[in-house]
Amino acid sequence: MAWFARLKRRAAQLKSDTFALYLAARDPRTPWHARLLVAAVVAYALSPIDLIPDFVPVLGYLDDLILVPLGILLAIRLVPAVVLAECRERARQVLEGGKPVSRTAGTVVILIWIGLAALCLAWGYEVFLASHDSLSRCEARDRPPTPAGSFLPPRECEGPPALDLGR
Fold this sequence. Notes:
This protein is mainly alpha-helical. The chain is 69% helix and 0% strand. It is built from five helices and no strands. α2 runs antiparallel to α3 (59-78).
C-alpha cells in the first residue's frame, strides 16, 4: 500500500505543478520558448480532448500516464527556478482555497467543441451532397439520348453511388 500512497502524492504534485506552470506561462520573466511549451502542456493536460482517446484499450491511458508527466517535467526544466518557486507557492495557496475556476478557459474549451461540431456537420453535409450529386450524374450518364419531344423516365443506377470526397 505504500506504493499507492506514493502514487497518490505524485498525482497531487502533478496537479499542483500543472497549475504552477499555468501561472508561470503568464509570468513575464518566463522565456518565450518555455511559455510556448508550457501553454501546450497545460492545455493538453487540462483539455478533455486527448491525442489517443481513453476508450482505446491500454493506449488510451498511456498518453495521460507518459506524455503529460514528461511534458510537465520538460516544461519545469525550461522555466527559471525563481519563477517556478514563486508560482508553486501561489498555486499551493490557490489550491488550498478550493479549485480554481476560469470562465475564460471554460469558454475556450466550449468554443473548440462547438467549432469541431460545426466542422463535422459541414463534412457530413458535403458527403450528403456528394452522394446526391453522384446519383444525378449516374442518372444522366445512364440515360440514353432521347428524340426531341419524347420523355423517358430515368433508369436506376447499378450499385451504390460512389462517394467522391475530392481526392
